[in-house]
Amino acid sequence: MAPGPLKNAVLFAALAALFVLIWSWLGAPYTVRVLVEASCYAIIALGLTIQWGYAGLFNAGVMGFIAAAAFVTMFLSFPVNPAFWNSQAPGLLFLAFLWLVVGGLITFALAASRRWGVPRRLALTGAIIAAIVTYFSVNAALSPAATVIVSEAGFVGGLGLPVGIGWIGGALVAGALAWIIGRICLGLRADYLAIATLGIAEIIKAFLKNEEWLTRGTLTVSPLPWPVPGPADLGFVGSRAAYLVVIAILIVIIYVLLERAWHAPWGRMMRAIRDNEEAAEAMGKDVNARRLEIFVLGNIIIGLGGAALITFAGIFDPQGFAPLHHTFLVWVMVILGGAGNNLGAIFGALFVYCIWVISEPAALFLFEIAGDWGRDVFGWTTTVGDMQVRALQMRVFVIGLTISLVLRYAPRGLIPEKVVRYD
Length: 423
What we know:
Blueprint: H1 3-26, H2 28-55, H3 62-77, H4 82-85, H5 89-112, H6 120-152, H7 163-185, H8 190-210, H9 212-215, H10 231-234, H11 236-263, H12 265-275, H13 277-282, H14 287-313, H15 323-337, H16 342-378, H17 384-409
Helix pairs in contact: 1-2, 1-16, 2-11, 2-14, 2-15, 2-16, 3-7, 3-8, 3-14, 5-6, 7-14, 15-16, 16-17
């Protein structure tokens, strides 16, 4: 066995041993839950690693794409709310939507009028004015609808479609959002993309948190339906195991497709653009179009993983989307596993999430031992609440220590990108 495959086998064997340890320590239900959540993060990491590892695109707004996909999934798959459809709210919403469509078409026509001979400055001014008028018109039509919805129905509810359709819809919306951002920012320097994605992520979170008529805001939406039978049918562990099988199948499909793309001419083109943009342009490659292509593809995968993650949690909570969990942690997974290596992204997601979740109970266990010893020897007094808070804070320290050690001894990640040489 070659050194590379042997090293990978050893790493995955050590990871399996770590999960066995969790199984023996914390039980089967907790272990299967960690595996499902880590697998969902693995899908998200695959989407990010092709953006950063394939094309060098710095996406600092992973949280925003996850939140958008999660909302769409909730809206499509959550049961229908009869109180909403039996009220006058649908008609009021249709009026607001009509204002949006008409205003959007007028704005687009004015922006494109320069192609028909209208001066550029005049076309831009008209488009801006039309956009402002559209915004205030839609807001004026939406306010009474929102009031009626909140007072009579609570919130809009869902469409009651199958969960799979919800996942696909969430992934496509994340891709559409990426297309809009990419069209604006990918022609600029890389730091503009990072700033834009970070800002968009916070805007999406604020919108979902404050539009109670659409998302219930801080009241949350639950329980979200699963794509597999629930605990009432298969038992607590069995239902989670079935969910894990679905996510594992998705990972295998995505991994195989990405590996084929990586070794195809398309993958070689993306690496050429990443490594030497000027040379790629000199060879006739449309750099911005290819970057937009992979930015959209990566966020479709990120949206799919985010939709699966929120569905498994069973609750849609706009406040639950945090940069620490849904952006920083994913970046740690990609960097530690090895950017540009799909297998490394999967390993990094499983390993980092495992460390993330077990560091708290492990730290609490050690704190309790230290507290008992300090009380017996020095007469220290400790409270359970204080130790739990400190144990929760240890997660960030442990993750920071882990990535520092890995980058010190494996700067390119534990399973780095394979350097492809052509004769």
